[in-house]
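ENTRY TYPE: paired fold submission
RECORD: A
CONTENT: sequence, then C-alpha coordinates
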Amino acid sequence: MNENPPDPAPALAVSGASFSYGRGPALEDITFELRPGEAVALIGPNGSGKSTLLKGVLGLVPRVSGTVTVLGQSAAPAGSVGYVPQTEDIDPHFPITLEQVVMMGRYRSLGWLRLPSRRDRDAVAHALETVGLGPLAKSRFGQLSGGQQKRGLLARAVVSGPRLLLLDEPFNGLDQENRDALIGTIDRLKAGGLAVLVSTHDLELARAVCEEVLLLNGSQVAFGPRDEVLTLDNVQRTFQDVGVEMDEHTVVVPGHEGH
Protein backbone atom coordinates (compact mmCIF):
# COMPACT_ATOMS: atom_id res chain seq x y z
CA MET A 1 0.00 0.00 0.00
CA ASN A 2 1.34 3.42 -1.00
CA GLU A 3 1.32 5.63 2.08
CA ASN A 4 2.63 8.73 0.30
CA PRO A 5 -0.05 11.42 -0.11
CA PRO A 6 -0.99 12.26 -3.70
CA ASP A 7 0.55 15.34 -5.27
CA PRO A 8 -1.67 18.41 -4.84
CA ALA A 9 -3.62 19.55 -7.86
CA PRO A 10 -1.79 22.23 -9.86
CA ALA A 11 -2.43 25.84 -8.94
CA LEU A 12 -1.51 26.66 -12.56
CA ALA A 13 -1.49 24.35 -15.58
CA VAL A 14 -0.41 25.58 -19.02
CA SER A 15 -0.61 23.24 -22.01
CA GLY A 16 0.51 24.07 -25.55
CA ALA A 17 -0.30 27.74 -25.00
CA SER A 18 0.69 30.53 -27.38
CA PHE A 19 0.06 34.24 -26.84
CA SER A 20 -0.12 37.11 -29.32
CA TYR A 21 -0.44 40.89 -29.31
CA GLY A 22 -2.06 40.64 -32.76
CA ARG A 23 0.91 40.50 -35.16
CA GLY A 24 1.96 36.90 -34.87
CA PRO A 25 2.71 34.93 -31.72
CA ALA A 26 4.79 36.68 -29.07
CA LEU A 27 5.29 33.43 -27.18
CA GLU A 28 4.65 29.93 -28.51
CA ASP A 29 3.94 26.40 -27.29
CA ILE A 30 4.34 26.68 -23.51
CA THR A 31 3.60 23.67 -21.31
CA PHE A 32 4.24 23.42 -17.56
CA GLU A 33 2.55 23.02 -14.19
CA LEU A 34 2.96 24.82 -10.88
CA ARG A 35 1.79 23.25 -7.62
CA PRO A 36 0.90 24.82 -4.26
CA GLY A 37 3.89 25.55 -2.06
CA GLU A 38 6.32 25.59 -4.99
CA ALA A 39 7.91 28.21 -7.21
CA VAL A 40 8.79 28.20 -10.91
CA ALA A 41 11.39 30.64 -12.29
CA LEU A 42 10.90 32.14 -15.75
CA ILE A 43 14.31 32.80 -17.24
CA GLY A 44 15.22 34.19 -20.65
CA PRO A 45 16.77 37.16 -22.46
CA ASN A 46 15.07 40.48 -23.15
CA GLY A 47 11.98 39.97 -25.29
CA SER A 48 11.86 36.24 -24.61
CA GLY A 49 8.24 36.30 -23.40
CA LYS A 50 8.56 36.26 -19.62
CA SER A 51 6.25 39.23 -19.01
CA THR A 52 3.99 38.04 -21.83
CA LEU A 53 3.48 34.72 -20.07
CA LEU A 54 2.63 36.40 -16.76
CA LYS A 55 0.14 38.70 -18.47
CA GLY A 56 -1.24 35.76 -20.46
CA VAL A 57 -2.00 33.91 -17.23
CA LEU A 58 -3.84 37.03 -16.05
CA GLY A 59 -5.78 37.23 -19.32
CA LEU A 60 -4.18 40.56 -20.24
CA VAL A 61 -2.56 39.14 -23.40
CA PRO A 62 -4.75 37.08 -25.75
CA ARG A 63 -4.10 33.34 -25.84
CA VAL A 64 -4.32 32.07 -29.43
CA SER A 65 -3.87 28.35 -28.79
CA GLY A 66 -3.60 25.82 -25.99
CA THR A 67 -5.05 26.02 -22.51
CA VAL A 68 -4.37 27.84 -19.25
CA THR A 69 -6.14 26.77 -16.06
CA VAL A 70 -5.86 28.44 -12.66
CA LEU A 71 -7.01 26.28 -9.75
CA GLY A 72 -8.66 23.99 -12.28
CA GLN A 73 -10.66 26.76 -13.98
CA SER A 74 -10.17 28.36 -17.39
CA ALA A 75 -10.69 31.82 -15.88
CA ALA A 76 -8.90 32.62 -12.63
CA PRO A 77 -11.38 32.75 -9.72
CA ALA A 78 -11.79 36.27 -8.33
CA GLY A 79 -9.08 37.10 -5.82
CA SER A 80 -7.10 33.92 -6.50
CA VAL A 81 -4.12 35.56 -8.20
CA GLY A 82 -1.74 38.20 -6.84
CA TYR A 83 0.47 40.13 -9.27
CA VAL A 84 3.50 42.39 -8.81
CA PRO A 85 4.51 44.06 -12.11
CA GLN A 86 8.02 45.28 -12.93
CA THR A 87 7.05 48.91 -12.46
CA GLU A 88 4.31 50.62 -10.48
CA ASP A 89 3.13 54.18 -11.11
CA ILE A 90 2.76 55.49 -7.57
CA ASP A 91 3.80 59.14 -7.38
CA PRO A 92 6.57 59.30 -4.75
CA HIS A 93 5.29 62.74 -3.72
CA PHE A 94 1.72 61.56 -3.18
CA PRO A 95 0.93 61.57 0.56
CA ILE A 96 0.05 57.91 0.96
CA THR A 97 1.41 55.57 3.62
CA LEU A 98 2.72 52.06 3.14
CA GLU A 99 -0.27 50.78 5.10
CA GLN A 100 -2.65 52.55 2.69
CA VAL A 101 -0.87 51.11 -0.35
CA VAL A 102 -1.25 47.59 1.03
CA MET A 103 -4.92 48.26 1.86
CA MET A 104 -5.47 48.79 -1.89
CA GLY A 105 -5.15 45.03 -2.19
CA ARG A 106 -8.33 44.66 -0.10
CA TYR A 107 -10.49 46.85 -2.34
CA ARG A 108 -11.91 43.92 -4.32
CA SER A 109 -13.54 42.59 -1.15
CA LEU A 110 -13.80 45.92 0.63
CA GLY A 111 -15.39 47.97 -2.13
CA TRP A 112 -14.71 51.64 -2.69
CA LEU A 113 -17.39 53.04 -0.38
CA ARG A 114 -17.01 50.90 2.74
CA LEU A 115 -14.48 51.76 5.42
CA PRO A 116 -11.89 49.09 6.26
CA SER A 117 -13.01 46.71 8.99
CA ARG A 118 -10.92 45.26 11.79
CA ARG A 119 -10.49 42.18 9.60
CA ASP A 120 -9.10 44.32 6.76
CA ARG A 121 -6.69 46.12 9.09
CA ASP A 122 -5.54 42.83 10.59
CA ALA A 123 -4.94 41.42 7.10
CA VAL A 124 -2.83 44.45 6.18
CA ALA A 125 -0.82 44.16 9.40
CA HIS A 126 -0.22 40.46 8.77
CA ALA A 127 0.87 41.08 5.16
CA LEU A 128 3.34 43.74 6.30
CA GLU A 129 4.75 41.42 8.94
CA THR A 130 5.10 38.70 6.31
CA VAL A 131 7.33 40.94 4.17
CA GLY A 132 9.20 42.28 7.21
CA LEU A 133 7.85 45.83 7.09
CA GLY A 134 5.46 45.91 10.04
CA PRO A 135 7.27 48.76 11.85
CA LEU A 136 7.08 50.96 8.71
CA ALA A 137 3.29 50.74 8.27
CA LYS A 138 2.73 54.47 8.88
CA SER A 139 5.71 55.60 6.78
CA ARG A 140 5.07 57.55 3.59
CA PHE A 141 5.44 55.13 0.68
CA GLY A 142 7.49 57.53 -1.44
CA GLN A 143 10.11 57.89 1.29
CA LEU A 144 10.84 54.17 1.51
CA SER A 145 13.84 52.66 -0.26
CA GLY A 146 13.28 51.00 -3.62
CA GLY A 147 13.62 47.57 -2.03
CA GLN A 148 11.15 48.41 0.71
CA GLN A 149 8.67 49.69 -1.87
CA LYS A 150 8.91 46.40 -3.78
CA ARG A 151 8.29 44.44 -0.62
CA GLY A 152 5.33 46.72 0.13
CA LEU A 153 3.87 46.00 -3.31
CA LEU A 154 4.34 42.31 -2.60
CA ALA A 155 2.36 42.77 0.62
CA ARG A 156 -0.38 44.45 -1.40
CA ALA A 157 -0.45 41.46 -3.77
CA VAL A 158 -0.87 38.89 -0.98
CA VAL A 159 -3.07 40.80 1.48
CA SER A 160 -6.30 39.23 0.18
CA GLY A 161 -4.98 35.68 0.38
CA PRO A 162 -4.37 34.65 -3.25
CA ARG A 163 -3.34 31.09 -4.03
CA LEU A 164 -1.14 31.97 -7.01
CA LEU A 165 1.42 34.79 -7.01
CA LEU A 166 2.98 36.25 -10.17
CA LEU A 167 6.18 38.28 -9.77
CA ASP A 168 7.79 40.14 -12.68
CA GLU A 169 11.52 40.74 -12.05
CA PRO A 170 11.07 41.40 -8.30
CA PHE A 171 14.82 41.29 -7.59
CA ASN A 172 15.84 44.01 -10.06
CA GLY A 173 17.83 46.77 -8.39
CA LEU A 174 17.70 45.36 -4.87
CA ASP A 175 20.63 45.60 -2.47
CA GLN A 176 21.72 42.48 -0.61
CA GLU A 177 19.62 43.24 2.48
CA ASN A 178 16.41 43.54 0.46
CA ARG A 179 17.31 40.54 -1.72
CA ASP A 180 17.71 38.41 1.38
CA ALA A 181 14.46 39.77 2.85
CA LEU A 182 12.56 39.02 -0.34
CA ILE A 183 13.93 35.48 -0.52
CA GLY A 184 12.81 34.92 3.05
CA THR A 185 9.38 36.33 2.26
CA ILE A 186 8.91 34.04 -0.75
CA ASP A 187 9.98 31.05 1.34
CA ARG A 188 7.39 31.94 3.99
CA LEU A 189 4.66 32.36 1.40
CA LYS A 190 5.48 28.99 -0.15
CA ALA A 191 5.44 27.38 3.29
CA GLY A 192 1.88 28.68 3.62
CA GLY A 193 0.87 26.89 0.42
CA LEU A 194 1.15 29.76 -2.07
CA ALA A 195 2.27 28.88 -5.61
CA VAL A 196 4.75 31.40 -7.07
CA LEU A 197 5.63 32.09 -10.71
CA VAL A 198 8.58 34.49 -10.82
CA SER A 199 10.31 36.12 -13.77
CA THR A 200 13.97 36.79 -13.02
CA HIS A 201 17.31 37.25 -14.73
CA ASP A 202 19.12 36.50 -11.48
CA LEU A 203 19.88 32.80 -11.75
CA GLU A 204 21.49 32.59 -8.34
CA LEU A 205 18.26 33.81 -6.78
CA ALA A 206 16.26 31.40 -8.94
CA ARG A 207 18.27 28.61 -7.37
CA ALA A 208 17.52 30.01 -3.91
CA VAL A 209 13.72 30.17 -4.16
CA CYS A 210 12.51 27.99 -7.07
CA GLU A 211 12.08 24.24 -7.32
CA GLU A 212 11.61 24.27 -11.10
CA VAL A 213 12.72 26.46 -14.00
CA LEU A 214 11.11 27.35 -17.32
CA LEU A 215 13.62 28.63 -19.91
CA LEU A 216 12.13 30.86 -22.62
CA ASN A 217 13.31 32.44 -25.84
CA GLY A 218 10.10 33.17 -27.75
CA SER A 219 9.12 29.57 -27.14
CA GLN A 220 9.86 26.97 -24.50
CA VAL A 221 13.49 25.87 -24.36
CA ALA A 222 13.28 23.61 -21.30
CA PHE A 223 11.21 23.02 -18.18
CA GLY A 224 11.83 20.84 -15.16
CA PRO A 225 13.63 20.58 -11.82
CA ARG A 226 15.99 23.49 -11.25
CA ASP A 227 19.25 21.56 -11.15
CA GLU A 228 18.35 19.49 -14.22
CA VAL A 229 17.31 22.49 -16.33
CA LEU A 230 20.00 25.01 -15.35
CA THR A 231 22.77 23.35 -17.34
CA LEU A 232 25.31 25.20 -19.44
CA ASP A 233 23.88 23.70 -22.65
CA ASN A 234 20.31 24.76 -21.86
CA VAL A 235 21.30 28.26 -20.79
CA GLN A 236 23.45 28.72 -23.90
CA ARG A 237 20.49 27.68 -26.06
CA THR A 238 18.32 30.20 -24.21
CA PHE A 239 20.73 33.16 -24.32
CA GLN A 240 21.89 32.55 -27.86
CA ASP A 241 23.55 35.88 -28.58
CA VAL A 242 25.47 36.54 -25.36
CA GLY A 243 28.31 34.84 -23.56
CA VAL A 244 27.44 32.44 -20.76
CA GLU A 245 29.64 31.30 -17.89
CA MET A 246 28.76 28.60 -15.40
CA ASP A 247 30.26 26.98 -12.34
CA GLU A 248 28.90 24.34 -9.98
CA HIS A 249 26.83 26.87 -8.07
CA THR A 250 25.45 29.39 -10.51
CA VAL A 251 25.11 30.52 -14.10
CA VAL A 252 26.29 34.00 -15.07
CA VAL A 253 25.16 35.86 -18.18
CA PRO A 254 27.58 38.83 -18.36
CA GLY A 255 25.94 42.17 -19.00
CA HIS A 256 22.39 40.80 -19.19
CA GLU A 257 19.65 42.92 -17.67
CA GLY A 258 16.35 41.06 -17.90
CA HIS A 259 12.97 42.54 -18.80
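RECORD: B
CONTENT: sequence, then C-alpha coordinates
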Amino acid sequence: MTLGETKGIILFTKDYKEKDKLVKIFTESFGKLMFFVKGAHRKNNPISPAILPFTEATYIGDFREDGLSFLNGSKEISSFRVIQEDIFVNAYATYILNLVDVAIEDRTYDPNLYSFVQQALRLLNENKDAEIITNIFEIQLLSRFGITPEWRHCAVCEENQGKFDYSSKYSGVLCEQHWHLDEHRYHADPRAIHFIRLFSIISYDKVQEINLKPETKTTIRQTIDELYDEYVGIHLKSKKFIDQMKSWEDTLKRPIREKKEE
Protein backbone atom coordinates (compact mmCIF):
# COMPACT_ATOMS: atom_id res chain seq x y z
CA MET A 1 0.00 0.00 0.00
CA THR A 2 1.26 3.45 -0.93
CA LEU A 3 -0.33 6.67 0.28
CA GLY A 4 0.42 9.59 -1.95
CA GLU A 5 -0.49 11.33 -5.18
CA THR A 6 0.07 10.93 -8.89
CA LYS A 7 -1.05 12.40 -12.16
CA GLY A 8 -3.58 10.28 -13.94
CA ILE A 9 -5.92 10.04 -16.92
CA ILE A 10 -9.40 8.51 -16.62
CA LEU A 11 -9.68 5.38 -18.77
CA PHE A 12 -13.28 4.52 -17.92
CA THR A 13 -15.80 4.44 -15.10
CA LYS A 14 -18.63 2.10 -14.24
CA ASP A 15 -21.32 2.16 -11.61
CA TYR A 16 -20.91 -0.06 -8.57
CA LYS A 17 -24.04 -0.65 -6.54
CA GLU A 18 -26.30 2.39 -6.21
CA LYS A 19 -24.04 5.21 -5.10
CA ASP A 20 -20.48 4.11 -5.79
CA LYS A 21 -18.22 3.80 -8.84
CA LEU A 22 -15.26 1.80 -10.04
CA VAL A 23 -12.85 4.08 -11.88
CA LYS A 24 -9.96 2.85 -14.04
CA ILE A 25 -7.15 5.41 -14.12
CA PHE A 26 -3.89 5.30 -16.04
CA THR A 27 -1.53 6.84 -13.50
CA GLU A 28 1.88 8.25 -14.30
CA SER A 29 3.50 6.71 -11.21
CA PHE A 30 1.80 3.33 -10.78
CA GLY A 31 0.44 2.34 -14.19
CA LYS A 32 -3.23 1.38 -14.63
CA LEU A 33 -5.21 0.96 -11.41
CA MET A 34 -8.86 0.32 -10.60
CA PHE A 35 -10.18 2.61 -7.88
CA PHE A 36 -13.22 2.31 -5.66
CA VAL A 37 -14.95 5.68 -5.23
CA LYS A 38 -17.49 5.68 -2.42
CA GLY A 39 -20.50 7.94 -2.84
CA ALA A 40 -19.51 8.95 -6.37
CA HIS A 41 -23.16 9.66 -7.23
CA ARG A 42 -23.72 11.78 -4.18
CA LYS A 43 -24.57 15.38 -4.99
CA ASN A 44 -21.71 17.82 -4.48
CA ASN A 45 -19.14 15.06 -4.03
CA PRO A 46 -15.88 17.06 -4.41
CA ILE A 47 -14.20 14.26 -6.34
CA SER A 48 -16.91 14.01 -9.02
CA PRO A 49 -15.33 16.47 -11.52
CA ALA A 50 -12.04 14.52 -11.37
CA ILE A 51 -13.59 11.20 -12.39
CA LEU A 52 -15.51 12.37 -15.44
CA PRO A 53 -14.49 10.73 -18.74
CA PHE A 54 -11.62 12.44 -20.58
CA THR A 55 -10.21 14.11 -17.51
CA GLU A 56 -6.63 14.41 -16.28
CA ALA A 57 -5.85 15.33 -12.69
CA THR A 58 -3.52 14.75 -9.79
CA TYR A 59 -5.14 12.02 -7.74
CA ILE A 60 -4.58 11.61 -4.01
CA GLY A 61 -5.21 8.22 -2.53
CA ASP A 62 -4.29 4.77 -1.38
CA PHE A 63 -2.49 2.97 -4.22
CA ARG A 64 -2.48 -0.78 -3.65
CA GLU A 65 -0.37 -3.54 -5.16
CA ASP A 66 -3.37 -5.84 -5.42
CA GLY A 67 -7.11 -5.45 -5.27
CA LEU A 68 -8.86 -2.10 -5.52
CA SER A 69 -7.15 1.19 -4.78
CA PHE A 70 -8.98 4.09 -3.14
CA LEU A 71 -9.29 7.77 -4.07
CA ASN A 72 -9.24 10.30 -1.26
CA GLY A 73 -9.10 13.49 -3.26
CA SER A 74 -7.85 15.31 -6.34
CA LYS A 75 -6.36 18.57 -7.50
CA GLU A 76 -5.18 20.27 -10.71
CA ILE A 77 -8.18 18.92 -12.62
CA SER A 78 -8.07 19.40 -16.39
CA SER A 79 -10.96 18.37 -18.62
CA PHE A 80 -10.53 17.65 -22.32
CA ARG A 81 -13.61 19.70 -23.18
CA VAL A 82 -13.60 19.28 -26.96
CA ILE A 83 -13.28 15.51 -26.61
CA GLN A 84 -16.16 15.46 -24.12
CA GLU A 85 -18.46 17.47 -26.37
CA ASP A 86 -17.65 16.34 -29.94
CA ILE A 87 -18.91 12.84 -30.75
CA PHE A 88 -16.37 12.39 -33.55
CA VAL A 89 -13.32 13.41 -31.52
CA ASN A 90 -14.75 11.46 -28.59
CA ALA A 91 -14.80 8.28 -30.68
CA TYR A 92 -11.09 8.45 -31.51
CA ALA A 93 -10.13 9.35 -27.93
CA THR A 94 -12.19 6.44 -26.59
CA TYR A 95 -10.44 4.06 -28.98
CA ILE A 96 -6.99 5.31 -27.95
CA LEU A 97 -7.81 4.82 -24.25
CA ASN A 98 -9.25 1.35 -24.96
CA LEU A 99 -6.02 0.42 -26.76
CA VAL A 100 -3.98 1.51 -23.74
CA ASP A 101 -6.12 -0.61 -21.46
CA VAL A 102 -5.44 -3.78 -23.47
CA ALA A 103 -1.81 -3.02 -24.42
CA ILE A 104 -0.25 -3.21 -20.96
CA GLU A 105 -1.02 -5.09 -17.77
CA ASP A 106 -2.40 -3.29 -14.72
CA ARG A 107 0.26 -1.84 -12.41
CA THR A 108 2.82 -1.71 -15.23
CA TYR A 109 4.94 1.41 -14.73
CA ASP A 110 5.17 3.08 -18.14
CA PRO A 111 5.67 6.87 -17.90
CA ASN A 112 6.64 7.08 -21.59
CA LEU A 113 3.29 5.63 -22.62
CA TYR A 114 1.56 7.96 -20.17
CA SER A 115 3.21 10.94 -21.85
CA PHE A 116 2.29 9.58 -25.29
CA VAL A 117 -1.38 9.24 -24.30
CA GLN A 118 -1.32 12.71 -22.78
CA GLN A 119 0.05 14.19 -26.02
CA ALA A 120 -2.51 12.36 -28.15
CA LEU A 121 -5.45 13.57 -26.05
CA ARG A 122 -4.18 17.15 -26.00
CA LEU A 123 -3.90 17.21 -29.78
CA LEU A 124 -7.37 15.71 -30.19
CA ASN A 125 -8.66 18.36 -27.80
CA GLU A 126 -7.08 21.01 -30.03
CA ASN A 127 -9.06 19.65 -33.00
CA LYS A 128 -5.96 18.40 -34.79
CA ASP A 129 -6.48 15.61 -37.33
CA ALA A 130 -7.99 12.77 -35.29
CA GLU A 131 -7.30 10.07 -37.89
CA ILE A 132 -3.61 10.87 -38.16
CA ILE A 133 -3.20 11.17 -34.39
CA THR A 134 -4.85 7.77 -33.97
CA ASN A 135 -2.82 6.12 -36.75
CA ILE A 136 0.44 7.31 -35.20
CA PHE A 137 -0.72 6.01 -31.83
CA GLU A 138 -1.63 2.60 -33.27
CA ILE A 139 1.68 2.13 -35.09
CA GLN A 140 3.88 3.23 -32.20
CA LEU A 141 1.81 1.20 -29.71
CA LEU A 142 2.60 -2.05 -31.54
CA SER A 143 5.77 -2.45 -29.49
CA ARG A 144 3.64 -2.70 -26.31
CA PHE A 145 2.07 -5.80 -27.87
CA GLY A 146 5.54 -7.23 -28.52
CA ILE A 147 5.41 -6.38 -32.23
CA THR A 148 8.42 -4.56 -33.71
CA PRO A 149 8.25 -4.52 -37.53
CA GLU A 150 11.23 -3.22 -39.48
CA TRP A 151 9.99 0.06 -40.92
CA ARG A 152 13.30 1.87 -41.37
CA HIS A 153 14.48 0.09 -44.50
CA CYS A 154 14.05 -3.01 -46.64
CA ALA A 155 14.35 -6.09 -44.47
CA VAL A 156 16.47 -7.76 -47.15
CA CYS A 157 18.88 -5.13 -48.51
CA GLU A 158 18.37 -2.16 -46.15
CA GLU A 159 17.34 0.18 -48.98
CA ASN A 160 15.44 3.10 -47.48
CA GLN A 161 14.26 4.97 -50.59
CA GLY A 162 11.59 4.17 -53.15
CA LYS A 163 8.40 2.13 -53.00
CA PHE A 164 7.82 -0.40 -50.23
CA ASP A 165 5.32 -3.05 -49.23
CA TYR A 166 4.86 -4.91 -45.96
CA SER A 167 5.89 -8.56 -45.63
CA SER A 168 4.81 -10.75 -42.71
CA LYS A 169 7.38 -13.29 -43.86
CA TYR A 170 10.20 -10.80 -43.29
CA SER A 171 8.51 -8.92 -40.40
CA GLY A 172 9.07 -5.62 -42.11
CA VAL A 173 8.99 -3.70 -45.36
CA LEU A 174 10.44 -4.87 -48.66
CA CYS A 175 11.68 -2.52 -51.35
CA GLU A 176 10.24 -2.90 -54.83
CA GLN A 177 13.27 -4.91 -55.98
CA HIS A 178 12.48 -7.61 -53.44
CA TRP A 179 8.69 -7.81 -53.67
CA HIS A 180 9.10 -11.05 -55.61
CA LEU A 181 10.48 -12.75 -52.48
CA ASP A 182 7.04 -12.78 -50.85
CA GLU A 183 4.00 -13.38 -53.01
CA HIS A 184 1.85 -13.03 -49.87
CA ARG A 185 3.06 -9.51 -49.03
CA TYR A 186 0.27 -7.07 -48.23
CA HIS A 187 0.08 -5.59 -51.74
CA ALA A 188 -0.67 -2.33 -49.96
CA ASP A 189 -0.78 1.10 -51.54
CA PRO A 190 2.86 2.31 -51.53
CA ARG A 191 1.69 5.72 -50.27
CA ALA A 192 0.05 4.04 -47.27
CA ILE A 193 3.32 2.25 -46.46
CA HIS A 194 5.22 5.52 -46.92
CA PHE A 195 3.13 7.27 -44.28
CA ILE A 196 3.05 4.29 -41.92
CA ARG A 197 6.85 4.25 -42.02
CA LEU A 198 6.75 7.96 -41.17
CA PHE A 199 4.20 7.38 -38.39
CA SER A 200 6.49 4.80 -36.78
CA ILE A 201 9.10 7.43 -35.94
CA ILE A 202 7.38 10.82 -35.97
CA SER A 203 6.79 12.78 -32.79
CA TYR A 204 3.41 14.35 -32.15
CA ASP A 205 4.75 17.89 -32.41
CA LYS A 206 5.14 17.30 -36.16
CA VAL A 207 1.52 16.25 -36.75
CA GLN A 208 0.37 19.59 -38.13
CA GLU A 209 2.90 19.24 -40.94
CA ILE A 210 1.10 16.13 -42.30
CA ASN A 211 -1.84 16.78 -44.62
CA LEU A 212 -3.48 13.83 -46.33
CA LYS A 213 -6.23 13.32 -48.88
CA PRO A 214 -9.22 11.21 -47.75
CA GLU A 215 -8.35 8.41 -50.16
CA THR A 216 -4.82 8.15 -48.73
CA LYS A 217 -6.24 8.04 -45.21
CA THR A 218 -8.49 5.18 -46.31
CA THR A 219 -5.59 3.08 -47.60
CA ILE A 220 -3.60 3.78 -44.42
CA ARG A 221 -6.59 2.68 -42.34
CA GLN A 222 -6.92 -0.54 -44.36
CA THR A 223 -3.23 -1.39 -43.93
CA ILE A 224 -3.16 -0.69 -40.19
CA ASP A 225 -6.31 -2.78 -39.79
CA GLU A 226 -4.55 -5.63 -41.58
CA LEU A 227 -1.53 -5.31 -39.27
CA TYR A 228 -3.70 -5.32 -36.14
CA ASP A 229 -5.79 -8.24 -37.37
CA GLU A 230 -2.68 -10.29 -38.05
CA TYR A 231 -0.52 -9.41 -35.05
CA VAL A 232 -2.75 -8.10 -32.26
CA GLY A 233 -6.10 -9.77 -32.85
CA ILE A 234 -8.26 -7.51 -30.70
CA HIS A 235 -11.72 -6.34 -31.70
CA LEU A 236 -12.73 -3.28 -29.71
CA LYS A 237 -16.25 -1.87 -29.78
CA SER A 238 -14.79 1.62 -29.99
CA LYS A 239 -12.94 0.71 -33.21
CA LYS A 240 -16.11 -0.77 -34.71
CA PHE A 241 -17.91 2.47 -33.84
CA ILE A 242 -15.28 4.51 -35.69
CA ASP A 243 -15.67 2.28 -38.74
CA GLN A 244 -19.45 2.73 -38.65
CA MET A 245 -19.12 6.44 -37.99
CA LYS A 246 -17.36 6.96 -41.31
CA SER A 247 -20.53 5.91 -43.11
CA TRP A 248 -22.84 8.40 -41.38
CA GLU A 249 -20.64 11.41 -40.61
CA ASP A 250 -21.62 13.00 -43.93
CA THR A 251 -25.27 12.69 -42.96
CA LEU A 252 -24.62 14.84 -39.92
CA LYS A 253 -22.91 17.34 -42.21
CA ARG A 254 -19.72 17.50 -40.22
CA PRO A 255 -17.42 19.83 -42.15
CA ILE A 256 -14.58 17.88 -43.67
CA ARG A 257 -11.50 19.85 -44.60
CA GLU A 258 -9.88 18.21 -47.57
CA LYS A 259 -6.21 19.06 -47.75
CA LYS A 260 -3.51 18.63 -50.29
CA GLU A 261 -0.84 16.14 -49.38
CA GLU A 262 2.62 17.38 -48.64
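NOTES ON RECORD B: The radius of gyration is 20 Å. Residues 123 and 133 are 8 Å apart (CA to CA).
STATUS: closed
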